[in-house]
Design goal:
Elements (H helix, E strand, L loop, with lengths): L4 E2 L1 H24 L2 H27 L4 E2 L1 H11 L7 H13 L14 H14 E2 L14 H8 L1 H19 L3 H24 L8 E2 L10 E2 L5 H7 L7 H6 L12 H12 L2 E2 L4
Antiparallel strand pairs: 1-3, 2-6, 4-5
Helix pairs in contact: 1-8, 2-3, 2-4, 2-7, 2-8, 5-8, 7-8, 8-9
The chain binds zinc ion (ZN) (2 copies).
Amino acid sequence: MPKRNFNWQIASFFTIVTVMAGYGVWWEIHNFHLLTVLLAIAMYLLCGLSITITYHRAGTHRAFKMKRWLWNATLVLSSGAVLLPFITWCRRHRDHHAFTDDPLRDPNCARPGFWGFLDTHIWSVISSAYRDKPIDLTEVEDPMVRWQYRWYGPIAATVGFLLPVSLSAIWGDAMGGLLVACGQRMFLQYNGAFAVNSAAHSLAFGSKPGGHWSSAVRVSWLPFGFLLAALSLGEVLGHERHHEKAQAWSTGVRGNFTDLVLRVMNRLGWVTLRES
Ligand SMILES: [Zn+2]
Ligand SMILES: [Zn+2]
């Protein structure tokens, strides 16, 4: 078993987010504010789709082209999900596809069984044998990507925390903004993102109709599929096919929310989809 390094920073951050999310339930019971909940949902969609559409499909897999303004705007919005700068995310995800299930080279190496599922879902995020390679910014052509990497901390703090807290302060619910639009929103967003690494790589949650060599599965809609699909904005669906055809813009599963949004963006001329 390769040696794994425990990351105290990430572990502390997740602990704080989880405590905020739990406290947020108490806050909603006693100080429910509809506008704060709507803000949390809007932030979830904007930040989440910026990860699924921009980070994942357009940026990492180059599945389609998008307008420059949309690329720039979603790189800023994606920082509100606090899921690493694009360069780091992209490199890790490309390694996930190239070295799937290799404990040293796959950052999201899936392990079998129930405990393996829990290990992949959360423990491997804070304690992994995977090592990020050093990043040389002079090799990165896109100025927006360089800018996001350099200033990721302040951008993530502004979009992920300051923006929702300031907006909810307008209607007198700054604390609700922190606990609900930051804490709960991020807690659910993380579980949706991590489900793509855990549930979408576990036979307990799906099957392998395509017979792909890796642990990637096609997640079933029932019993947890609806919940996981909602949390991951559709990304958990059709994951076996995604490992077969990573450059396809669609996962080929009906009801995938990210696919639906991409179709609308294509109609508006914001992205250019090609047949997959
Ligand atoms: Zn995968
Ligand atoms: Zn991928």
